[in-house]
């Protein structure tokens, strides 16, 4: 066990300041190599290090190996070898640069080629006699181009010279001159390959002969090092990188075999280059071989940035990943007897985990038992004294300052991590409690909430700190009492949960009483004072009773005030006065109990949780709470159970009826209303079956059906509360919010209900889930047809399972449920959240708060944000403004947690996934160069003056913009022989039939339709450069329709072909109509704008952030989607141009493109920044998470720090680094494609200064964040001499925002001169200016006044009655209340404090109360203060404010 007896190795120390990357040259390779390899057997020679075959030691350094393979003298890290290549080849890393420079020079005269667009002066330097420079096409000397060969031609390692066929055709003879290729030197040994007559594959020697006459400065500017262009040697990696030793057996990897093939090479130089490239590709940081299954997964994955061939895995293992022996990993279990900030460790783990500690007089009492234990086990142990290791055999030999390595004891601190670390609080420092347990660690169940874990097999990773500094940092920064506030939402992190929450809910119910023995027993578990009983029975033996509310009140601080209006909860002076039968105020909802406790008690809130956990769990264990299958029956009464089943059956029929009615209202299904009859049962069943299949073929129809029946399913779920017994354990936990949810209980006890999936199937699901229905469907093979030309082969699974888990599922119900349940969990989005987390971290992990208060990037100390928390964002953490605070990592964690929480929401084909919407916002719309864009159009508010004005306006815009294809209205197409005879017109006629009802609904004019068909036909001919014959398009009475008897309901447009065109001679008229005319005409846009394929009318909800009731409102808006005919870069300008005729009904101030780059182009980066923050906030709220505005702002600033938004991927990060002129190749290689990034940086000879946290951790440095943040101390050399002495208390009193607890508030004094009124008004105006600092317009001042009004209103709602204001709230209230018209009269002797109280005239309303210095109190209305402030800023607004809030008041 005692493994601390070791010899410390002295290693040279130094500070790593950076790394420079470069391409290995031939000279560098010779310097590094230990030997030159001449034969294939020497590839694994003993000179290259250990292990090797039949050699006990390394020839180069002398390191030896024992028989069992262990190195006993010294470690041999290996040595490089060198292979001298038989030919000089081109360096594979510079192939593209070589081709680039060859295209810039003339191969004939070696001068730079002139550009046709260049001026005449630049072309005078070109030689006049060079035939290749002038490009004499007529003489057979066209321009020669160079490119890198394809992968199937020497594996992209050869240069190909070619002549463009178009350039060749410009000449008169259309052939090359006989001496055209003579400028390329011929190789006497190997002739270049000839692919075609106009192409040549160049050998490396031929490329050298062309480049040797080029100016050396030109080559140096492009290649940085001229000696790196060609290779004549190859470095061989040491044996330790390629040879593996397994006992007595040694194996070689593929790399060794590649080296041997290069040594034994026989062939052409280009073939040798291909083999060298194969060796380079086998590098551990380059591509890896992947299976076909992995490639298929990558193609189907929504994460297009994922790639298993990037080499990231090997880079993590070699550099980024770290190993430590001071850690443990065990399954976690719950133990409510532990304190919230404790972790129970097994004795075996505590004894095996050693930590260094120094002996001093003040800690000897703690270390003496540890020393006794080590002496009893081993008789002696080693200590570190004065930098040396010595062994001691007794306690008398120990000295002050000796460092020992002891086991863990109670009270030690360890760092706990529950992977994956997706949020800030997954790392918590807990205090050790050693327990007699085995193989598991235990924590308090309340600690599961910050760790996002449970007790179903989750594992915890523990890390034992090894230095005093790390232990102090853990205690001061990461301990649980320092993380009581959720870093994502700003709410409380801990609250009652699981059994303790259930107990709190049950104990607060009416009628819960405790006897004296029970009360005394429970009081022992908490440090609470005895209280008088509520009920005293006057009998022979006096009996006293305490209520459950009294027991709960004993746990609260005596001066605690709390109210929760929605649950009717009121706590006065630490006593629970009233509470309804609800538990939301005990959980992590809005302004809950623990949020107020945290603000009132701070870190002492943990004491309340510890006491409440013990008391409540003890009471619950005495009361009893058992769960059985009987609880699933909800009711034990058979009659009640039968009534429940009847209600469920009736509800399902009602939902089915509403679904059918909603489907019948759709246009394509209204024919069933005319054809069906209530008396014809077979027709009615057929109609229902067709409607059900139609519902599965269209997501819109499915959404319509579900929306109609959603309220019924909600009512069915509420039957649980109606029929469940009061003593039902499931219902108790459900109401308490400790476990489960209503939907799960509904599925277990009543019915599974609606089942749907986002993955389409190739078959439909029967309407009734029974084996008979399934067999009947298979036998008939019914396929629903949406029109006469195509069949639907994909179906959206959507059905209702009427059975429950309690009653059992039949085979088909079980199959459907498993099919939908599995897909609804993750679908194809499981990797999206992980990818977003990784990308956010790479972008934001190095954003910290500088010591000047700005937010900076560690890379280049670049300013990202001038201030982290503005006045609108009240800082959540007290250390948020500390220098080095990792605000970027915290914001990335907050967004990542929202992304992972979106996975818990079921995926649906009917609604957009919140995770995909969040991903779309973070990508900033700049990822894909293809794909449709969209824009949001908001209607003018003037339309609200009319009845249904917004609805009519939306329909008008949709009708005007949305493109309507001819194929959308044509119901039938046929070709027939015309009875009319004409010599110039073909007898074959093409008939397009349109329903008159459809034409009426679409408001089509046949003349306009015919003109559109003519225009599209002419435009198509010009576009494809075809001589299309003239078409005769007419609206006529159709003879075919008369035959079928549909002439009254059909409009026929006939098309005939003019026979004068010669193009018809190539193919027949019938084929021309069928293959050309019909496809072209059906794709004609006959109405609307061809640039916009779809216009949707949508509803946008707007939540009131300042109204406690959270009342929702909204408006209609239109989403316009571009078509393939619209130019992507001009989408917004085209949309505005097309809307000129309807611009009066569109509010262009609020309308905008949805793409963030288009938004920035149209409105500027400031407006785009605000739009991004709003979109990100909306996307996160849809995941069900709340997030602090600080995180949103810093994310927006991080992505737009260069002046424009970049996408969240490696390319976007690279663009940011390039704009800032910062080189970080190591970090970018860790992000994506390490091989490509390292090669690119090496070719540019870049230096990485290792400024980020990834580089610091990989190379053993301290990350420049948190306590590792660096700062400069600037000293002028001259001491500071104050000009005059200053009374510090007078200085502090001038800052109202930093008042001391007992300090008198400094008030303005009214002047006593004659013009006192004007001066007082002037002072108030100056007060407004000071209050609204930075407001440059009247509107800004009004907005600031309203913001202060909302802040005052928030204080009245949040603070408990008679609770005094403090901090920023007090400063804001003092400045605002000074505008009260009777401020001087109310203050009199001076204001001492401000608190929240009740208005004496209106006791139901709250107001602010001034506490004067003499102890008297005076109420003050904040609305009068706001009203007078508005009078100074805008009298008209003040009148409106007065009529709304102060009407009837003096």
From TrEMBL:
Which keywords belong to this entry? DNA-directed RNA polymerase, Metal-binding, Nucleotidyltransferase, Transcription, Transferase, Zinc
Catalyzed reactions: RNA(n) + a ribonucleoside 5'-triphosphate = RNA(n+1) + diphosphate
The UniProt entry, under SUPFAM superfamilies, shows: beta and beta-prime subunits of DNA dependent RNA-polymerase
Keyword presence, Transcription: yes
The RNA polymerase N-terminal domain extends over: 227-508
Membrane-spanning segments: none
GO MF annotation, one: metal ion binding
| Matches recorded under InterPro entries | DNA-dir_RpoC_beta_prime, NRPD1_N, RNA_pol_asu, RNA_pol_N, RNA_pol_Rpb1_3, RNA_pol_Rpb1_3_sf, RNA_pol_Rpb1_4, RNA_pol_Rpb1_clamp_domain
Which GO cellular component terms, listed alphabetically, does the Swiss-Prot or TrEMBL entry include? DNA-directed RNA polymerase complex
Query: Could you tell me the EC number(s) of this protein?
Result: 2.7.7.6
In Swiss-Prot or TrEMBL terms, this protein is called DNA-directed RNA polymerase
Species of origin reads Penstemon smallii
């Amino acid at each position: 066990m005692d493994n601390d007896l070791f010899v410390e190795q002295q290693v040279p120390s130094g500070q790593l300041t950076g790394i420079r990357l470069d391409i290995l040259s031939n000279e560098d390779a010779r310097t590094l190599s230990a030997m030159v390899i001449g034969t294939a057997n020497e590839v694994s020679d003993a000179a290259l290090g250990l292990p090797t075959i039949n050699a006990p030691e390394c020839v180069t350094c002398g390191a030896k190996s024992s028989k069992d393979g262990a190195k006993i003298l010294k470690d041999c890290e290996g040595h490089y070898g060198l292979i001298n290549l038989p030919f000089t080849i081109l360096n594979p890393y510079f192939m593209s640069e070589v081709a680039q420079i060859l295209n810039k020079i003339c191969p004939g005269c070696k001068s730079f080629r002139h550009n046709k667009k260049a001026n005449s002066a630049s072309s005078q330097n070109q030689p006049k006699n060079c035939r290749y420079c002038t490009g004499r096409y007529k003489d057979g000397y066209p321009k020669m181009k160079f490119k890198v060969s394809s992968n199937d031609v020497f594996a992209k390692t050869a240069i190909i010279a070619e002549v463009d066929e178009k350039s060749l055709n410009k000449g008169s003879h259309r052939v090359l001159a006989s001496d055209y290729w003579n400028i390329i030197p011929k190789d006497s040994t190997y002739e270049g390959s000839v692919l075609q007559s106009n192409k040549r594959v160049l050998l490396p020697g031929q490329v050298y002969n062309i480049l040797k006459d080029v100016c050396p400065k030109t080559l140096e500017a492009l290649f940085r090092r001229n000696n790196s262009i060609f290779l004549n040697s190859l470095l061989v990696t040491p044996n330790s990188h390629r040879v593996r030793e397994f006992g007595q057996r040694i194996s070689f990897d593929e790399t060794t075999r590649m080296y041997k093939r290069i040594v034994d090479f026989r062939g052409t130089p280009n073939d040798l280059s291909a083999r060298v490239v194969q060796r380079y590709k086998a590098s551990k940081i380059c591509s890896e071989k992947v299976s076909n299954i992995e490639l298929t997964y990558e193609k189907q994955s929504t994460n297009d940035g994922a790639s298993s061939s990037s080499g990231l895995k090997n880079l993590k293992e070699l550099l980024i990943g770290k190993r430590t022996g001071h850690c443990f990993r065990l399954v976690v279990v719950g133990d409510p007897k532990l304190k919230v900030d404790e972790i129970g460790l097994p004795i075996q783990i505590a004894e095996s985990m050693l930590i260094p500690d120094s002996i001093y007089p003040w800690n000897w009492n703690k270390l003496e038992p540890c020393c006794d234990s080590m002496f009893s086990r081993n008789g002696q142990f080693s200590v570190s004294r004065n930098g040396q290791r010595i062994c001691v055999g007794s306690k008398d030999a120990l000295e002050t300052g000796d460092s020992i390595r002891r086991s863990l004891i109670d009270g030690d601190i360890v760092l706990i991590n529950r992977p994956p670390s997706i949020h800030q609080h997954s790392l918590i420092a807990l205090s050790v409690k050693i327990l007699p347990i085995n193989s598991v660690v235990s924590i308090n169940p309340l600690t599961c909430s910050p760790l996002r874990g449970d007790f179903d097999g989750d594992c915890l990773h523990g890390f034992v700190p090894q230095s005093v500094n790390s232990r102090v940092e853990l205690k001061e920064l990461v301990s649980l009492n320092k993380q009581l506030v959720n870093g994502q939402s700003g709410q409380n992190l801990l609250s009652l949960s699981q059994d303790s929450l259930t107990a709190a809910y049950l104990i607060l119910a009416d009628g819960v009483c405790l006897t004296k023995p029970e009360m005394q027993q429970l009081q022992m578990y908490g440090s609470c004072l005895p209280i008088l009983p509520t009920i005293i029975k006057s009998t022979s033996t006096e009996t006293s009773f305490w209520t459950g509310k009294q027991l709960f009140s004993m746990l609260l601080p005596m001066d605690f005030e709390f109210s929760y209006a929605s649950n009717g909860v009121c706590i006065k002076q630490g006593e629970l006065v009233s509470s309804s039968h609800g538990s939301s105020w005990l959980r992590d909802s809005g302004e809950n109990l623990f949020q107020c406790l945290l603000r009132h008690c701070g870190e002492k809130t943990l004491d309340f949780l510890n006491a409440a956990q013990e008391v409540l769990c003890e009471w619950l264990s005495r009361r009893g709470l058992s769960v059985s299958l009987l609880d699933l029956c909800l009711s034990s009464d058979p009659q009640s159970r039968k009534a429940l089943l009847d209600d469920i059956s009736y509800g399902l029929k009602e939902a089915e009826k509403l679904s059918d009615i909603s489907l019948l209202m759709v246009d394509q299904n209204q024919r069933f209303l005319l054809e069906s009859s209530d008396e014809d049962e077979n027709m009615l069943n057929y109609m229902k079956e067709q409607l059900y299949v139609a519902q599965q073929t269209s997501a819109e129809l499915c959404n319509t059906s579900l929306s109609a029946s959603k309220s019924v399913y909600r009512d069915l779920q509420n039957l649980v509360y109606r029929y469940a017994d009061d003593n039902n354990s499931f219902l108790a936990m459900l109401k308490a919010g400790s476990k489960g949810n209503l939907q799960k209980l509904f599925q277990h006890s009543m019915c599974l209900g609606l089942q749907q999936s986002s993955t389409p199937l190739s078959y439909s699901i029967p309407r009734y889930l029974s084996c008979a229905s399934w067999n009947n469907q298979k036998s008939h093979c019914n396929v629903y047809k949406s029109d006469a030309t195509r069949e639907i082969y994909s179906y959206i699974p959507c059905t209702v399972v009427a059975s429950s888990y309690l009653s059992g599922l039949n085979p088909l119900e079980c199959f459907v449920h498993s099919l939908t349940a599995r897909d609804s969990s993750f679908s194809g989005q499981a990797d999206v959240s992980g990818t977003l987390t990784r990308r956010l971290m790479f972008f934001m992990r190095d954003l910290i708060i500088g010591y000047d208060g700005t937010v900076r990037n560690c890379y280049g100390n670049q300013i990202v944000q001038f201030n982290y928390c503005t006045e609108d964002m009240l800082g959540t953490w007290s250390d948020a403004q500390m220098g080095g605070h990792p605000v970027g990592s915290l914001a990335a964690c907050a967004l990542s947690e929202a992304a992972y929480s979106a996975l818990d929401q079921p995926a649906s084909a009917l609604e957009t996934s919140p995770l995909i919407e969040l991903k779309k916002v973070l990508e900033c719309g700049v990822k894909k160069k293809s794909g449709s864009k969209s824009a949001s159009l908001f209607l003018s508010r003037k339309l609200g003056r009319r009845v249904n004005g917004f609805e009519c306006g939306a329909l008008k815009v949709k009708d005007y913009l949305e493109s309507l294809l001819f194929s959308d209205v044509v119901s039938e197409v046929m070709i027939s022989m015309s009875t009319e005879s004409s010599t110039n017109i073909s007898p074959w006629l093409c008939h397009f039939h349109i329903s008159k009802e459809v034409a009426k609904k679409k408001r089509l004019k046949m003349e306009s339709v015919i003109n559109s068909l003519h225009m599209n036909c002419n435009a198509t001919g010009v576009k494809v450069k075809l001589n299309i014959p003239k078409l005769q398009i007419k609206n006529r009475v159709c003879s075919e329709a008369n035959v079928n008897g549909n002439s009254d309901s059909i409009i026929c447009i006939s098309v005939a072909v003019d026979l004068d065109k010669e193009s018809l001679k190539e193919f027949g008229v019938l084929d021309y109509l069928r293959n050309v005319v019909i496809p072209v005409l059906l794709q004609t846009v006959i109405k609307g704008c061809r640039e916009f394929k779809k216009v949707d009318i949508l509803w946008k909800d707007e939540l009131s952030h300042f109204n406690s009731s959270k009342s929702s409102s909204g408006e209609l808006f239109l989403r316009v989607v571009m078509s393939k005919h619209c130019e992507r870069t001009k989408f917004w300008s085209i949309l505005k141009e097309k809307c000129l005729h309807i611009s009066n009904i569109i509010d262009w101030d609020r309308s905008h493109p949805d793409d963030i780059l288009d938004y920035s182009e149209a409105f500027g980066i400031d407006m785009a920044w605000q739009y991004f923050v709003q979109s990100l906030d909306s996307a996160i709220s849809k995941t069900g998470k709340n997030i602090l505005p600080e995180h949103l702002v810093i994310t927006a600033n991080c992505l737009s720090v260069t002046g424009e938004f970049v996408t969240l991927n490696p390319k976007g990060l690279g663009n940011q680094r390039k704009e800032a002129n910062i080189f970080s190749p190591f970090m970018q290689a860790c992000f994506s494609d390490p091989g490509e990034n390292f090669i690119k940086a090496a070719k540019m000879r870049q230096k990485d200064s290792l400024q980020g946290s990834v580089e610091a951790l990989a190379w053993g440095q301290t990350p420049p964040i948190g306590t590792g943040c660096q700062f400069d101390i600037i000293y002028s050399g001259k001491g500071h001499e104050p000009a005059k002495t200053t009374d510090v208390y007078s200085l502090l009193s001038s800052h109202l925002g930093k008042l001391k607890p007992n300090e008198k508030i400094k008030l303005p004094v009214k002047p006593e001169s004659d013009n006192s009124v004007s001066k007082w008004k002037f002072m108030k105006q100056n007060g407004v200016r000071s209050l609204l600092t930075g407001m440059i317009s009247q509107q800004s001042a009004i907005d600031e006044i309203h913001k202060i009004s909302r802040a005052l209103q928030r204080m009245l709602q949040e603070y408990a009655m008679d609770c005094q204001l403090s901090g920023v709230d007090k400063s804001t209230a003092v400045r605002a209340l000074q505008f009260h018209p009777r401020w001087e009269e109310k203050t009199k002797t001076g204001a001492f404090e401000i608190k929240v109280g009740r208005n004496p005239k209106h006791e139901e309303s709250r107001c602010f109360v001034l506490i004067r210095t003499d102890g008297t109190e005076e109420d003050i209305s904040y609305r009068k203060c706001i009203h007078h402030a508005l009078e100074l800023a805008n009298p008209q607004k003040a009148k409106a404010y007065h009529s709304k809030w102060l009407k009837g008041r003096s």
